[in-house]
From TrEMBL:
Entry similarity comment: Belongs to the TenA family.
GO molecular function: thiaminase activity
Reaction(s) the record says it catalyses: 4-amino-5-aminomethyl-2-methylpyrimidine + H2O = 4-amino-5-hydroxymethyl-2-methylpyrimidine + NH4(+); thiamine + H2O = 5-(2-hydroxyethyl)-4-methylthiazole + 4-amino-5-hydroxymethyl-2-methylpyrimidine + H(+)
Pfam families reported for this sequence: TENA_THI-4
Keyword Hydrolase: yes
EC number(s) recorded for this UniProt protein: 3.5.99.2
Claim: Ribonucleoprotein is one of the keywords in the record: no
NCBIfam families for this protein: salvage_TenA
Protein name per the record: Aminopyrimidine aminohydrolase
Active-site feature positions: 214 (proton donor)
Record lineage: Bacteria, Pseudomonadati, Pseudomonadota, Alphaproteobacteria, Hyphomicrobiales
Primary enzyme class: hydrolase
Gene name of the encoded protein: tenA
Swiss-Prot/TrEMBL GO biological process terms: thiamine biosynthetic process; thiamine diphosphate biosynthetic process
Amino acid sequence: MNDATNGSGATFSAAAWQANLPVFEAIRTMAFNEQLAQGTLPADRFKHYMIQDAHYLIAFGRALAIAAAKADDADGLVQFSEAAKVAVIVERSLHTDFFRSFGVAPAEFDGTEMSPACHHYTSFLIGTAHAEPYAVVLAALLPCFWIYAEIGRDILARAVRPNPYDAWIDTYAGEDFHEAVRAVIATTDRAAATASPQVRARMHEAYKRASQLEWMFWDSAWRLASWPV
């Protein structure tokens, strides 16, 4: 957290986290993450998750690039341009590392379309990035950073080791990722501190919707969800 407030004494991030704590708790305790921590998550569910995550990260990178273009200072431009680059690098590493480890051939990825939840989430991010002001865009992007960081550390604390998902756990529980997350929280709080009450309300709406979509993304992988028709 940082000291950027709107005069009420509470940062945007502190208020948003508290308001959406039930959503985080639902994610933390869902069967997908419980079994991932135990190392008992079926490989087909993790493969579904990783393929959809690769689709998601490309769209997430595009939304980050739009945030960079809308940044109100040079620091934000650099921060989110670099974040967009990292999202694409991570997506490519999925192909070379996770996909190989879990037997996902390039043709299988290319032939697998976005799930309904992934399509909904990425459409929400891209639409918000284009249509909303900088502060609201940051609020929509923040849950993906922050929830993953907290879930990663929570799973690390209770994970059975060795674990077939050790590489995933170590990535999101690692200090490098958490340092980047703290920087995004700080930038979002600074943007919120000077936002109008109306924009700040839209920030809360965007943060809530993105948090709900995080739950839907994991739930979709657990159910091996695809388009019903």
